[in-house]
Amino acid sequence: MSDRPAVRYSRRRMFGGLVALAAAALLIVGSFLTWASASQPSAEEFEEVPMTVTTSATISGMGSVSLDLEVADAPPSFPQLDGAYLDQEASEGEEHTRMSGIWTVVFGALIAVGAVGLLVQRLAGASAFLVSLVALAALLAVIVFFTDPLAAVTSGSIGDSASGDFAAGVGLWLVLIGAVLGLVAGAVSVRRPRVA
Question: Model's pTM, two decimal places?
Answer without folding.
Answer: 0.78
